[in-house]
Amino acid sequence: MNNLGQMIRHLATLSVVYLLRLTNHASFLTTRSSTTTTTTVLLATYCCIGASVAGVADAAGEEKTLSAGKLRSLGEVALSERKFPEAVTYYRKAISVEPENSINYYKLYSVHKRMRSLSEALEDITRAVELNGSKVDWRIQKAKLLVNLGRCDEAHVEYMEAQKGATDERNANKTVEGAREAGECAKMIEAAMKSYQKESWGEAVGYFNRVLAVTLDTPDLLFMKAQAEYHTGDYYGVVSDTGKMLKNYPKHIESYQLRGEAYFRLAEFDMAIKHFREGLKLDPEHKGCKQGHKILKQITKKDKRGDEAFEKGEFKKAIDHWWEAMNSDISLLSFVRPTLLKVVKAHIGLKDYEKAIEEAQKHVENQESVEGLHALGEAQLGAEKYDEAMRTYQRAFDMAPEDQKRECQEKFEQAKTALKQSKEKNYYKILGVPRTAQQKEIKKAYRDLALKWHPDKNSENKEEAEKMFQDISEAYEVLSDKEMRSKYDRGEDVFDNQGGGGGQRRHHMDPNMFFQQHFGGGGHQRHGGGQRMHFRFGG
Question: What is the pTM assigned to this prediction?
């Protein structure tokens, strides 16, 4: 083949030289035949193609003449440089040259093992052992690989075969120990499968963990473990194990579904939707991913409607939307529990404190937490059950981590102050707002009550109206002022002359003037032609 290539190249070279000379000679002529020119170009092209073909033929001939030994050497060089695909190519060519040489398959096995292509590595080592069964070390490596693939029964058989041919103590010990470990592995797999079939999920997880500790590539066992973890409620374990699955098998649709369901149970809805969608990309009609995606969208949509209604102050609508969302899957506690706390706040917003206490009790009875106890304490404060609120906040303090104890102590002190104030004049109660009310809510309550109890509108019970009007104005003056409200909430005196001893205190502003200053008087006339009036309040 090499001689043929050289001949073709020589002919091509001579032809090109001849054509060039002919072309140069013709250039001195004033006219030139187009036919001659075309023929010249075609002939030159043909010669060039011939030269190229000769080059390819030479290269193919040279590679074909490489011996299996040379190919193995090239494979070893590629392997040392971590050029694994190139090494595989060389060893496969060596196999095509010497298909019955076991060393070629063993070399290919070594590369596939480095590439973690364990199934292909098993095919290679199996063929190597078939061609040369006397290699005890190869059988031991095959047995180890079978264990890595979770085929422990077969590994045990292979170790026993290797034991028959072991002539030195080192290999003999390896086969004995390997057979023992493979036998234990096989028993653990059998036990795991039985536990899985019996739905003894916790027990199954334990066996799978032991098996996976001695295997490398057993996706079926890893996925079964993830399923068992899901049934035990170990959703973080599911996320971890299905993550390993998808790293090695990115098209394993059941792993996308199971991982999405685990995130769903953890109320990490964005991640759940992401995984359901990835599964649907692989199979748009996959039943599990479609159903999970549908339920999740329903829940998030209703929950969002509840949040929007709450922000608008439409507490009844918010409660209805949240309960619809929770009833989509009442067992989804990671979503139900925080949503129930939102329901408690909405009932407090409606001043339905008894219902708020009832819902908060459900949360606490399901599982006691600092957040749940705080919600219960707030509802008890609204219902003026101050002693109970103090006990609730104390429970929260006792179980709270260090970084939350200060907040718990503050809430306890608020309840203690509220108990003290309940025996005096309670500004929050006068305005009918909770202690957590925002300024907007306090201002609205004051306006509504001031208009209702304005003396000009209550001529038949003027004395009572004046008393109520005074109390409403005083309450608003204190609660609308940030500094005074803070002092009041701490149980401190808010007026300079508000001492103890049961004495009276004097409100420093005329309630009528105060009302007109804030709301223009609503068209009512002030008493006494603008005369400043002082109202006395009992201690």
Answer: 0.67
